[in-house]
Amino acid sequence: MTTDTPLLTAQGLAKYYGHRLGCRDVDLTLHEGEVLAIVGESGSGKSTLLGLLSTELAPTAGRVAYRMRDGETRDLASLSEAERRLLLRTDWGFVRQHAEQGLRMAVSAGGNVGERLMAVGWRHYGDIRSEATDWLSRVEIAAERIDDDPRTFSGGMRQRLQIARNLVTRPRLVFMDEPTSGLDVSVQARLLDLIRQLVEEFGLAVVIVTHDLAVARLLSHRIMVMKSGRVIEQGLTDQVLDDPREPYTQLLVSSVLAA
Amino acid sequence: MPNTAQALPAAQESCAGSRLGAPAAPSLVRDTQDLLLSVENLAKSFTLHLRDGLTLPVVSGVTFDVVAGECVALGGPSGAGKSSILKMVYGNYRIDAGSVRIADGEAFAEVAGAEPRQMLALRRTRVGYVSQFLRVIPRVSTLDVVAAPLRAEGVDEETAKARAGALLARLNLPERLWSLPPATFSGGEQQRVNVARGFIGSQPLLLLDEPTASLDAANRQVVIDLIREKKAAGAGLLGIFHDAETREAVADRVVDVTRFEA
User: Domain check: are A25 and A149 in the same one?
Assistant: First the structure.
């Protein structure tokens, strides 16, 4: 099941927006089932890095490679547009901070989940509907809301629907961009717990961008700390948080208010 | 034989043969079958960048071993670096210099500089840790908190939960609490959850950071029994015990950490 070949590899990744630095000199490997948190302040380059890894942005330099379901590791820049889109719809997920960017707001909840199934070849309406219902219940959305569209959902429900939509195709790698930001604390806790359970149950590899160190501690195995476009410190999550070495990491850790 | 061995070199003292009085001259060559942990010349200091780069030396030259079937206590006053040593062995604190080797099958795994996923694999199967404080995960029940290390070893859910329940019962945690997350529990209750979570796994090396600190006498005795059972089963334990009674009851020898003052 798991192999020693990494799922995702990045080498020498850099992105410049004109003269402005997005990020540079980023190397990373991610194995199946590993959860990597990228932390740092706004403007540190973490969202740029997520965009590069997920092929939403084209790198100025460097490469990203991914081990496909057939076992072959491919340079993502070499994929055809059709291959790239298939990858994004099946073996990858992307959970966005703003659910309206990750969902189709005018399509029913069931349709949002079913759409991904249809992309991987499901055709039977009854099967799609029952799988969608099953996934709504996994993310704690009542079955009777299946025909409602997400505009009628609360923020927390929308995020949970986004998760169902992304996980229904059993992806191996999920990118998450601040998935709990902007939610009430109690809603956040519920969502985090759900993510934690699903990650464990499906052995998902996750790259999660967050500015919240508590989220990183709860979900991730490893942390990368970014500042001014570069990775300044990385390692085992509890080690980086309990024994931070870099001045900036020490500042981040010491700035967290204990509840 | 508690507290008698401080002056002896660790390697001699814990040699299984010399305990039985069999070899005439104690050998420094250890039967590596029994060696579970080897710490050599370990050093640690903290640099506080938010305090103008102030450096706080913690320990240096820390050297000792733990073999199967023994409980080694780290001794010394607060601030001597006992917890820091435990945390370095567990990979929770970085190692500035020296070596921490943990028995991993036929070989030894080096903790200093280990990749995160190597360290996590070691924690899953080779080294467990009972901390003083429970880090509570919202919404996860006590029974699941305790069963988690067994689940990570691949034990099925039913068996893991049954064993978690048995341990919690031994530690006198009322069954009505098992389905609740331990967030609202008292300090003593949380510590018993922590102890159960630490002792449930089958890692051959167990690190204990004051496992009895906020327990009453009855529960302290349960922890003492659990430690003795681990030893009898061939595990090695390395612990910090502020409570002298517990230390006397479980420790085979004390490694005096003040020797390693940086």
Answer: no
